[in-house]
Amino acid sequence: MLFSQLQDLGVDGILVAPGFGYEAVGEKLFLEKREIERKFEQVYEMSKRFRFYSTPMYLKFLKGERQLECTPWGNPTRNPQGWKAPCYLITDAHYPTYREMMEKTDWEKYGVGKDPRCGQCMMHCGFEPTVVSEIGKSWKDIWEMILWELS
Length: 151
Ligand code: SF4
Hints:
Shape: globular
Largest sheet: 3 strands, antiparallel
Structural class: mainly alpha
Mean pLDDT: 91
Distance between the termini: 22 Å
Strand order of the largest sheet: 1-2-3
Radius of gyration: 17 Å
Bound molecules: iron/sulfur cluster
Helix content: 25-40%
Number of helices: 6
Strand content: 5-15%
Number of domains: 1
Number of strands: 3
């Protein structure tokens, strides 16, 4: 199994995210949302045996146990063309500065249920930042994160 081999190779931790299909890809190469959730039920169980860098809240989101909204600006991407908006996956514009990207992008337009290209997205770049921004809202989540940090 891949995770066992990675552990044997001395990999410190595992970060997981599902690939997803969207209009621009055209072909049916990726799993649909419900298939992703079923697959990640198994991955969640594996996270109890292997060291995962993905947070437990994100893993629960991937297996359909909790809801998260996307935070597209949470993991900004810069490439040779500039700051890429709105996210790592979708490119609607590039800006010369981070400030311009933040100020000129209409962030309300993006996310599941808002832009059809986001329809199947469950990528860590958009949803792990939401875990971080919401962590202080629940003592249960705080406790779970403490245990995860210590594991
Ligand atoms: S839902 Fe996915 S594709 Fe859409 S803005 Fe968020 S990270 Fe980007």
